Amino acid sequence: MKCGPENFTEILTDHGVCFTFNSNHGQPLYVLSTGAEYGLKLTLNVEQYEYMPGPHDAAGVKMLLHDSKEFPGVAELGLAMPTGTHAYVGIQVVQIENLPEPHGDCASQSSPYYQDYSYDNCQMACLTGLLEDTCGCRNHFMPHTLGAPPICTLEQYYGCYMKVIDELKQRVREDCACPVPCDFLIFDPALSFATTSVFATDRLLAAAWRSGDLGERYLAAMETTQRMERIKLSRFQALERDAQLRLHNLSDVMLRGVKDTIERAEVTLGEVSNATHSVWDRKHYLYRWQAYHVQKNFIRARDAMDERTFDYLAMGFQEIGNLTASRIWALADPNVTSPGAREALYLTVVTSLHAKMDLCDRALDNYTQLYSAYFNGTPIFRYKFVRELRNDNVFVTPTHLLHTALNHNSYALKYGARLGTDIERFRDTLARFVQLATQAFDNGTVDTEDMYHADVQFMWRGRRYLHSKSTFDEECIEYPLRVLEDRMTSFERLLRNYDDIMTESLRNIVSLKASLADLEDSILTRLNHSMRLASDYFTVGNLSKLEIARELTSQNIYVGISDLKVFFQSLRSRGQKVYDNWDKIAEATNAIWQVVIDDEDMLEYYTYKNMTHFLRNATEVAMENREVFNDYRQEFDFRFLIGSSDSLFLKSLQDLMSDMEGYLQTSVIGTDFIRENFLQLDVFYREKSYEQITQQIGYDEFALLCEFSHLHCLHFVLFGISYCPW
């Protein structure tokens, strides 16, 4: 048959509130057979989650098998059974019958509290009387008559009861005359245990899930326990306060120290970059002016001279030489007898030769002017650059470079000076042709050998002039422009290197700034919200610990913590790069400044314009820049700004989250919940008989042997059981 709450009676015992089974004397329950299948089967939930700190530390059930007429001393005599087990209690009943005086010492006494006499009832009644006399009250489980004596108040309990109870128990043992009862039962239990099977655990778990109110009661009990148990509450509060403090410190460092340093570093890098670019732009502008000035006012003058003299001087010199030689031979030809024809031919030859000689003179003048312009740095033309004044051209003239162009290598040194000589000697060959033409016209004869040498010399001088002119143009005239273009290219390369370093630093800073802004809008805001909720748990009390635990262990928090760790790592690695780049920026800046200051071809312009910052000593400028950038490096070193704040906070938060995860795990009704709260109990008779021990007045030896232990077979009443959850 099934049993339910109606089969159990709530009673007060020395172990607290207990429940008695089969306590109805008028309608006792019977069993007709032995074994676990014919006994009492219970599945108990001890509700360990409802436990509060108290005098007992164990978890489980205490069971006492006793005569229903006796006081159940569960605290001292109960059998303990743990949760997570299947307990089997097999019982053997022993009936004791003692003799009264004069053959024995059994007896019974009347009591105002109990109808049936037993030794335990007698001692409890005696203890109750002594306690009433001493404290004027009784403990809650002690017997009474119509509420007298009254239950001790808290003041009486702690002020009197707790102080005298041990002494009174000793007096009961010494002074209270409680004889052995003449008839009583002894229940001899045999206990065995087995671990609750997986199948049984799953079955109990399914039943627990079907019972919706169990989960609600469990969570409510957990919440109450968390608030009422000082140790748990204090631990949670300590973890919350520590995490709150660490978060405040970290946020202060991140949103003030790190953020401010990053922003100031970004501004400073921008200012430094703008200042360096301003210097570079000015110098590059001057380079372009110089290149334009050299090209237009020097090389362009050479081009004009080429168009007017140099290119025509030896143009077609081979044809000219052959034509001149043939005409001179014609003047010496005896077949040409006409005076007019000979005179016309002579004038033609001499006129053309004198024209070439005049061209040589003008070419020599041009060469002299061009050479002097490069040697002295004097512009020939006066082209103006952009909006600059024409008169300012003289101050940007690269005098040293122009002068160097005439002797920077052996070719320039040789052919730069030889070109003028080659022009003069080319003119001399033309004059020799004039002499031969005059001789032929006057005498009608030409020396063959002289004519041959004059022709060969003319050809050789023409080739030599062209070679000297080509080398002079390449190595002298165009050299300054090539150097200036190389200088600009090198200067542009310095800026690209500078910009690469600056861009890397700015990229690292901008990346950190963006990451910090994202963290501020995401995880830091979420953490502050979560920690504020945790604080409200203690100050306002409008939230449950389960809600706090779910908030602090949410996926967003875990993702945010991962982002924080990445940021801290990035802050240190990128901070190291920015820190190292300050040295590189200093070197790149000094490289630009060195080009600006060491350009001797611009010193005159710097002085003319009073550009004092460009007239400083390059070494001093380099030292000054290194000092300034070293100060920047120290000021904006955010590698260690975070210090140990991140590790301390993450450790504190991890401790809090671990505690919350543990709490969440315990809030789940699972196999651990079943093992910690449920046990199965089978109580049954081992034998379908009981042992009877009876004292006799007297026997002979034979009778004694026959009657020493007589067993009776019967259908028996199931015993009374009192059990208490710890």
Automatic annotation (TrEMBL):
Localization in the cell: Membrane
One Pfam match, given by its short name, reads ASC
| InterPro entries the record matches | ENaC (IPR001873)
Gene3D superfamilies to which the protein is assigned, alphabetical? Acid-sensing ion channels like domains
Provide any one GO MF term from the record: ligand-gated sodium channel activity
> Single GO cellular component annotation?
plasma membrane
Note the topology in the membrane: Multi-pass membrane protein
Keywords, alphabetical: Ion channel, Ion transport, Membrane, Sodium, Sodium channel, Sodium transport, Transmembrane, Transmembrane helix, Transport
The answer to whether keyword DNA-binding applies is no
Q: What is stated as this protein's family in its record? A: Belongs to the amiloride-sensitive sodium channel (TC 1.A.6) family.
PANTHER family for the chain: AMILORIDE-SENSITIVE SODIUM CHANNEL-RELATED, PICKPOCKET PROTEIN 19
What's the protein called, per UniProt? Uncharacterized protein
